[in-house]
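Quick check before the chapter quiz. The format below is the same one you will see on the exam, so make sure you can read both the input and the output lines.
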Amino acid sequence: MGSFVANSPENHDQIAIVMVPFPAQGHLNQFLHLSRLVSSYNIPIHYVGFSTTITQAKARIHGWDLATATNYIHFQEFPTPSSFMSSTNNSDNNSSETISKLIASVLDASLTLREPVTAFIKNLSSTTRRVVIIYDSMMASTVRDVAVSIKNAEAYCFHAISAFSNSSLYWDVIKNLLHLPSFIAKLAKKLLLPSGAYIPEGLPTLKSTFTPEFTDFMRLQHRCNKFSSGNLYDTCKVLEGPYLETLARFNRLLGIRKQWTVGPFNPVTITDFKSTRHECLEWLEKQAPNSVILVSFGTTTSLSTEQIKELAIGLEKSQQKFIWVMRDVTKGEEDIQIPNGYEERVKERGIIVKDWAPQLEILAHKSTGGFMSHCGWNSCMESISMGVPIATWPMQFDQPRNAIFVTDVLKIGVIVKNWENRDDIIDSTTIKNAVEKLMASTNGHEMRMRAIEFGKKVRESLKNGGDHQKEMDSFIAHVTRY
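Here is the expected output.
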């Protein structure tokens, strides 16, 4: 990292970068990874947020050691709103209603950061020659004051979702605003989209994937996002080149001409820096190559007790080896309802993790051959960069579109749950069949080979001279140009 040498570190010491993440785990994780990448250029980073979310982000770092970057990454913590504290500490989070309340509390809490973040950046600007703000697209309203009022500050918008999801959402907005008939829309799509940018018809709608509160919040952020000097994306050209070109075309219409593709953020070479390894990694060491499927659904999703039971039975029927991370699914440790005697029956083939698990390290392990996932973009990027195919089970937000990107565009995944069936219980037979297809079929092997090839290309892009390195060097050269 940090191959750019046109400006020496001495020229960077009066430049500070302020990271403003959205206070949800996936976004916090991306910004912390990005902080690691930027800090490798010897530029001081100020990562701002609530004290509890920063503590959480630090605790869940995986694949690299924060201690190696503390000379350049500084954390600015603000008091956590009591309503946000109570919602995130709720141990009875096994219902979609509770998850909806949690999401609403995150949205409300994020709006309270405007005043303290503004004060912090104004103070920093008085002691630093130049301040560069990198803000989440969901936090435009938080930094809108300083981005336009401080002469020595410049702001860049980071987009946390895939270029495929982003560009397809743009297209939906354009089509709906112009009220284009279907045959004209198809013609316009051919004219507007570059070669290779395949956007299927009938993608999940905003209404079906986001709550009304979340949709209103996104609209607010879009209205406030009038000051960006450029866009950053957590993806890479080898995966999403045509969709990045699509975004460039759309953004030119909005007057934004600068964009950088700086993903993947997650490390692709895992260093074992901890004194003790998680027990699931020790278990993986004993398994054959590509024989284990990881089952994990992120930090803001929930499964009903009935669905947990069907999933448990489906995994058992498949006769495939698995690591099932349950706490991230259910949010409760004592209330997990799995069939009586289940853990004893599957102990030779499966391991159930009821706390946090090192997902990146598991995906990087040679014994891991598949990943049943909610298709959050972080998880997709981690899986693809490690060459692991995906069994898709989207829950909300951009995940249904990511799932389609995995299965229909990259063709490195099988469908467990179609978005059209989002309100249905997926039975154990469907789960069994999907797992067997991914892990023990000719089609699954072909998907794995394609995933491995994509993984190689992604990892190549991170080497000196690769697309990722060129994009990072270009961005650093741009923000240190004065």
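If your answer matched, good. DSSP finds 22 helices and 13 strands in the chain.
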